[in-house]
Amino acid sequence: MSYVANSAKYTLVQNPYDKHTGLHRGGEAKEVVTGRTLAADNVSRNGNTVTFSIPTTELESYAGYAKLTYKTAVKRGELDTSTNEVKFTNKASAGSGVKKFDSGKGDVIIKNNVIKKSGEQVANSNRIKYTILVNESAVALKNGTDFLELVDTMDAKCALVPSTLKVYEQVNGAWSPLADKDYSSKMEQVKDESGSRTKLTLEVPDGKYLKVEYEVIPTGNPGEEVSLSNTAELAGVTEGSAIDEQKWKIQNASASAGGNGYSITMTKYDAQQVGATLEGAKFTLYSVDMGQVADDGNVENARTPFDEAAIDVPTDANGKISFGTSDKKMSNCVLYQLVETKAPVGYAKADPTWIMLKGSASDKDYQAALTKAKDIVDGAEIIDDTKKDEIWVYDNRMTGKAVINAEKVLAGGTFKEGQFSFALKDDKDRVLQTVTNDAMGNVSFNVDYNKADTYTYTISEVVPEGAENNVKDHITYDRTQHKVTVKVDNGERNLVATVTYDNGSSTPPTFTNRYSTTLPEAGGAGLTMTYLAGASLLCFAATWMHAHRHRDRDRGGRRE
């Protein structure tokens, strides 16, 4: 703990006893100085001791007292991440001239707010904005990695607006956007007893104070109240969970919501980088004959393209695509199926999206058609007029795996499983994984990929704490760093990864530690002490033998 420069402030309270009247002593006291910053020259430091000299001339000739406040900073390394707190004891003493006051002390427990989540209604909108604060003290919360996994599971009664996801880090007291390359995000739908919930997973850097923001649209009719419960969790972190539970009133949709009643607009998003749109995905819009499906149960046989211009239409540079015009309107109470016919390179096609517009149809007619449609879509969502211009379709990236290997050798000794640790770092020297050797000396890192690219890493052995010059317990640790290159290519259904080491070799590197119990080098202090100790023992042995022999002779020459 250390004093924060220029943070000391003092207050002087004048207590004129000579003006006291009646029994209410002290009633005339008044502040003559309030919260004034103490001049830097009045503060001196010596190690952990700080001395404050408070000027009291403004008390004049009256009695009074001074109140001092100041700030201290805690070293991040002092925080115990198993409890997310640190305890300090501060002692204070004071004096004025020859007068010395009793000293005092107090314990201070400082708590790190690991995670906090809150929600608020967006002004003039039917959206709810959520804010998640992560790692307020900006300490390293996890060992063996430089990243945290933040999982936010949303209520089934709301939908994430993907374009609103933002991640910030605090720099010099202000929030600054975190670069896209410094974090990753993905979203998926998970089902439980409450329905289908959106699960948002972010991988964010450890050791930073972060803020995550996004917006959701609650489900319901204007004027209704909906209760939303959203949970955010930091995987593997003590006290790393936060829940926001509130009731929200559904607001009237904006004037543009619902659009013209005869068209739809869809945006294509990357499911593994939330908010990133995809250009070049192709879609066809079909109308479905619900009567024919009811007869033969085959949707593909019962669908026809909405229009010749609606076949294999690509998304634009913003990931958007629209169907329906004033000349070629989409019909009311008709079931439509929006099918992705071709995904962008490196992505898998999404499931079809179902749409039924109400337009000018009566509630009775629309509900009748909707009931028939629900029998066909097998529980899938049917987009209506309120969402027809906010249709969001997500493509999952192709996935692939690579195993990065190394070998462990202990020259001059034998090792056991888990004895040595190894770190895999990215091209920015950030630790991605830390693993140990198996009983045969094999070291393996399993890495998942969702994008074709070339990735570079380094593997290095972790030197344990307490080692001196890379030596601990007679073992000299190998400090070599080996380069790893993983080339990931798009396959037919999956990504294909090729691993090479150092200068393009396919042979995994070997880390060689050496075990030795030899004495220190000649001339060293250790050897000198060994010689001295040995010489002393020899002198003692010679003296004992000499005395022993003389004693034997005194006993008549007999030897015992």
From TrEMBL:
Keywords: Membrane, Transmembrane, Transmembrane helix. Pfam families: FctA, SpaA. InterPro entries: Adhesion_dom_sf, Ig-like_fold, SpaA_PFL_dom_1, Strep_pil_isopept_link, Strep_pil_link_sf. Residues 404-516 form the Streptococcal pilin isopeptide linkage domain. GO terms for biological process: carbohydrate metabolic process. Residues 263-353 form the SpaA-like prealbumin fold domain. The chain crosses the membrane at residues 522-545. NCBIfam families: strep_pil_rpt (TIGR03786). This is Cna protein B-type domain protein. It comes from Collinsella aerofaciens.
